[in-house]
Amino acid sequence: PQEIESGESEEESSGVNLMEFSDEILLHILSYVPCTDLVLNVRRTCRKLATLCLDKSLTHTVLLQKDYKVNKDKVKQLMRDIGKEIYQLNMAGCYWLPSSTIDHVTRCKNLVKLNLSGCHVTSRHLSKMLSTLQHLRSLAIDVNPGFDASQLSSECKATLSRVSELKQTLYTPSYGVVPCCTSLEKLLLYFEILDRSREGFMLSGQLMVGESNVPHYQNLRVFYARLAPGYVNQEVVRLYLAVLSDRTPENLHAFLISAPGSFAETGATKNLLDSMARNARLDALQLPKAWINGSGLLQHLKFNNPFYFSFSRCTLSGGHLIQRVINGGKDLKSLTSLNLSGCVHCLAPESLFRKAEDDIDSSILESLVMSCCNLRHLNLSAAHHHSSESIGNHLCQLLSRLKHLLSLALPVCSITDVAASVEKPPTASNSVPQTFGRKVRIGIQTYPRNLADQANQKIESSVFWALMGSLRFLETLEIIGSSFSSAMPRNEPAIRNSLPPCVRAQSVGDSEVAAISQLTYLQSLTLAQLPNILTGSGLVNIGLRCQHLRTLSLANLGMMGKVVYMSALMDMLKHCKCLRDLRLEQPYFCAGAQFFQALSHCSSLQRLCIVSRSGTLQSDAVMSFMANCLEVIMCHMFMGESLTVCKNLQQSIVRSFQADRPALNVVIFPLLHEDLTEVIRDVPMRHLDEITLFKSRVAEEPPNLWW
């Protein structure tokens, strides 16, 4: 009561009463409050808010996909209270909700869009649910082992026949509900099928051949397929493509296949591409590298107003890029997203006699920048893009002209000043082999701890400093070593050795990191394999000035035998009040009391992942951290501790906090244990894809691919 009285007196003295604001302003404020809180809590405070919280602008679209506090009781009550008012419902990644809770979606009779990716839904539950949703036009689901299309009722199939947008994640070889969707205009397929079952049996994509129905693609406008590593995924996607190869839809304008490794072209896929070249005018394109390399396909494809291109890992040369794709700079102002990750020759005139480490041709990059002046997302990672000594033609100087960039991924060796990389003698840390071996004691250069002192050095005159200063509205930045590979596996054992960094990258360190602090609106930052990190002082500047930072991923910074930036990292974390996701990958990382005490300052933190060969942890410190940080719902640690230590800590966390945190997901396991891949397969796909596995995410998919 005392607190309420003091609050009222302060309100009276200032003359401000929230309830005196107009309805329009209050509705705008309430739009930032999670729907569950609005309906179940806020609307019970007063009559005015009771009315406003049920306004159509707030109940039309309900987003539960990252509301980790929502439990089965809240969902049931929400559906009872406003189910009929919901037209769009996103429950993607709500892996902790039982299927009986998902069944309450049947109360939302007017649903038009429904996203259940990552939710527990069997074919029987799906049939019951969709039978009541006659207005549904957009659907996202998972297809798990045991899915049986024959269990779908005629009413369910009638609903599916009206669905025009389908996103389907496959964990087993199947067509899923695709054959029932006869009006498809957008089809997104995510293939996450493992080559072996849990029992160790080899799976085959041919299991689905016996299904009587085939997909209906005649109205298709968008086809997207993303494959996880594995032969079975390739087998299954070929069966989906077989129908397309017979006849290309007349209105197809986006065709995208993301496939890691080698995905060979066949006669059927060649027929499909030939048909597309004759009949389709595309706005978005991504193909497996084997389908593009050495072929004249790009010369024959026709584009309308392209907004997305991905040539990730292709051997496409800069000459071909300019001639066949950019078309001499014509009609490419529509392009907003470009992924050239792993295209080692894309900034060189030809690739036949060129080494990957040779200097780039700045005229090609200049043509690219001029032609695609409205780019918002650009990925140039996983390649050696070395600038020449020509004045004014450095890669950073040319990229600074792209004033609309929101996300950018660059290799470490591309941001160094040419003069510095050529003239600067190797420091003591550069001479240390970048391998896991016996620790080497070396002298550490004293680096200034504040931004003003660093500015007095070379930093403000560097091309990277100027680039960061020109991209004031950048929200996502990735600086990744061209030879970096994560120790965290996908479907294989953990990688034990890493390749040394590029020679040009040897001078990139603390001063370049400090330059990033100019990005006031930065929300996501990834730094991997920066060899010349000596103290990590630049991290402190980022923590102080980048107050919107929500996602931070650091990997293999400085020398490998010691975590030289630990003190600076702990100082940085004390300022990261908005940080939600933290991923750290560093050998010999000590996750002890001091680290977790600093991390406890990150009051908004939700997900933590630490990957460390020979790393150690203190169980008591972890438990104390989990008790202090009430928002944390994911704790993944892959360290050098014994299996017994890991299991005991994991069980203690689950036992202590699962009841109050329904979405809690804890995996603590030895990084080099032979059963790691079995443990990984049980991690919810949302966490695995967004944080646990390291990858470049800039321009990974077309913008607004799904809502």
What does the model show?
- This protein has 707 residues and is α/β, with parallel strands linked by helices.
- Helix content is 31%, strand content 15%.
- The chain contains 27 helices and 22 strands.
- It has a 20-stranded parallel beta sheet, with helices on both faces.
- Strand 7, helix 10 and strand 8 form a beta-alpha-beta unit.
- Helix 10 crosses helix 11, helix 14 runs parallel beside helix 15 and helix 22 packs parallel to helix 23.
- The longest helix is centred in the middle third of the chain and has 16 residues.
- The N terminus is likely disordered.
Provide a concise account of the structure shown.
The chain has 707 residues and is of the alpha/beta class. It contains 27 helices and 22 strands.
How much is the average pLDDT? 88
Task: List how many beta strands DSSP finds.
Answer: 22
**C-alpha-based Rg, rounded:** 26 Å
Shape: globular
What is the first-to-last residue Cα distance?
44 Å
- Poorly predicted spans: 1-11, 422-449
The total count of helices amounts to 27
Strand content: 5-15%
GO biological process, one term: SCF-dependent proteasomal ubiquitin-dependent protein catabolic process
Protein name: FXL18 protein
Organism: Nyctibius bracteatus (Rufous potoo)
Domain F-box: 15-62
